[in-house]
């Protein structure tokens, strides 16, 4: 699945999610106040959006709102920005996009707003300004740090297809019967979206999200914005700077997606990086066999993972109230492989220990990380997240519609990696989606951005970042060598990367050359 970056201190640094999009909840329809507009706005069809008044208020929504309290403690305020549902009909239906802002305190040296996107697609970013502001150190005082829940996400106008899962992704299993089950599963998810949200599905796209960003820029009263985007957020940044090239200042893209490879099948090609990350974790777990009991060598740990998958194919594993089958086990493994640190490795090792015990017939209560992953995959708790993610992927680029295309790719991929390659090559609801309304964005080739990527990133692979660097001579690439890490700046914790990004944000000058940083020594 595609991850969106979360707080380094929070419950999850990356989302762990993927699914199908839109809400039966009625879309908010708001009327903008009648205000006197500048004369030059008369020819601007979006004038009433660009010149709207933002009502800044407390971010706290109720006693249990942890995100709101963290924002308030950091000095942030929140507002709703009204945008058109359909930019070709700006006088029609409207929706709201929720934003948060920590204002610059060094007003004498203020640069302007820094808009954030933590990826997904479908990830919430409204709560991210406090930890990003902390990662920026002294330079953060010169920026208004702005978190955005993109259209249909989080506190923005919601979308929900009412799925029984938070993820459209599944493994096809071992045989054609399993693939056929997942084909029916994907078709059902697509049908649920048509049933609950057909009127808004066409407008859940990256290009519309970029248009929303430019309305936010104007509503903030700014000529230009700077931008920090992680994972899918890197693609959003590529699209925004292509659509609005004169309105960007400093751009940082971390976990870089190659726009030429962006599609509903963007996980294809990550097999080698995911297998490398799995081997790295297995070595870590083998060194801690006394704690997790998965085996005393890397090979033994990997064999334990395969044994769990084989057992789940025979009979679904009982984990609390859940039944975990061959279509779900590989997703649990996939979700365990994006963060290169002891805490994340330990969570995943405990989950595999739980699954291994279940495979042996024991009654198991899931550890916290596994319980969260199973709730995401096997209940509708996170249906809105998966709904938006899938709607955007399907709405941006058309996917092959013939299931046989996917079946052939899966069969070829099994030889490379029988556990994870079938996941990355499997079909999803986009095979049953209506065609996109717009052509995919042809991203400009002169983007002056600072690119950041780890060599072992299992989501946004290093090969993609290197391809983007070659395509954009005016950019620079900061490489974190030797880490199987998705999202680096402010997350992984290496001064070499963080200081390079902060120097660029402070001066606006890219490094003279590409920079390579070493991973932490265990």
From TrEMBL:
InterPro entries: AB_hydrolase_fold, Pept_S33_TAP-like_C, Serine_prot/Carboxylest_S33, TAT_signal. Residues 425-517 form the Peptidase S33 tripeptidyl aminopeptidase-like C-terminal domain. This is Alpha/beta hydrolase. GO terms for molecular function: hydrolase activity. Keywords: Hydrolase, Signal. The keyword tRNA-binding does not apply. PROSITE patterns: TAT. Residues 1-41 form the signal peptide. It comes from Streptomyces aquilus. Belongs to the peptidase S33 family.
């Amino acid at each position: 699945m595609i991850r969106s970056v979360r707080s380094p201190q929070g419950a999850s640094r990356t989302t762990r999610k993927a699914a199908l999009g839109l809400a039966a909840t009625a879309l908010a329809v708001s009327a903008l106040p009648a205000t006197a507009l500048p004369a030059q706005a008369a020819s601007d069809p979006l004038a009433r959006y660009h010149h709207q008044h933002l009502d800044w208020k407390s971010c706290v929504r109720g006693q249990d709102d942890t995100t709101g309290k963290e924002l308030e403690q950091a000095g942030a305020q929140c507002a709703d920005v009204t945008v058109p549902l359909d930019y070709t009909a700006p006088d029609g239906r409207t929706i709201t996009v929720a934003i948060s802002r920590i204002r610059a305190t060094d007003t004498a040296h203020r640069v302007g707003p820094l808009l954030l996107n933590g990826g997904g697609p479908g990830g919430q970013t409204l709560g991210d300004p406090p930890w990003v502001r902390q990662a920026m150190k002294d330079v953060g005082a010169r920026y208004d740090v702005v978190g955005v829940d993109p259209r249909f996400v989080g506190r923005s106008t919601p979308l929900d297809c009412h799925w029984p899962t938070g993820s459209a992704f599944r493994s096809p299993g071992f045989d054609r019967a399993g693939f056929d089950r997942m084909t029916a599963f994907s078709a059902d998810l697509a049908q649920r979206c048509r049933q609950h949200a057909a009127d808004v599905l066409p407008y859940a796209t990256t290009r519309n999200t970029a248009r929303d960003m430019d309305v936010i820029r104007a509503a903030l009263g700014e000529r230009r914005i700077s931008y920090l985007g992680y994972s899918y957020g890197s693609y959003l940044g590529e699209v925004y700077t292509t659509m609005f090239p004169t309105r960007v200042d400093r751009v940082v893209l971390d976990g870089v997606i190659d726009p030429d490879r962006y599609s509903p099948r963007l996980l294809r090609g990550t097999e080698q990086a995911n297998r490398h990350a799995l081997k790295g974790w297995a070595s870590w777990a083998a060194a801690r066999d006394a704690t997790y009991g998965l085996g005393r060598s890397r090979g033994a740990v990997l064999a334990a993972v395969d044994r769990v998958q084989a057992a789940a194919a025979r009979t679904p594993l009982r984990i609390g109230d859940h039944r975990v089958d061959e279509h779900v086990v590989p997703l649990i493994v996939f979700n365990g492989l994006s963060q290169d640190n002891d805490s994340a490795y330990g969570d995943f090792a405990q989950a595999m220990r739980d699954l291994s015990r279940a495979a042996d017939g024991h009654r198991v209560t899931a550890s916290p990380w596994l319980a969260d992953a199973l709730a995401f995959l096997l209940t509708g708790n996170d249906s809105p997240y998966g709904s938006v993610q899938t709607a955007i992927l399907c709405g941006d680029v058309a996917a092959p519609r013939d299931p046989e295309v996917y079946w052939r790719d899966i069969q070829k991929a099994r030889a490379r990696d029988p556990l994870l390659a079938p996941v990355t090559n499997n079909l999803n609801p986009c095979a049953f989606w209506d065609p996109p309304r717009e052509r995919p964005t042809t991203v400009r080739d002169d983007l002056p951005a600072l690119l950041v990527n780890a060599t072992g990133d299992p989501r946004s692979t290093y090969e993609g970042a290197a391809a983007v660097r070659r395509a954009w001579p005016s950019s620079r690439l900061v490489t974190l060598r030797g880490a199987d890490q998705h999202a680096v700046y402010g997350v992984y914790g290496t001064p070499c990367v963080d200081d390079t990004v902060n120097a660029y944000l402070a001066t606006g000058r890219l490094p003279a050359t590409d920079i390579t940083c070493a991973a932490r020594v265990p």
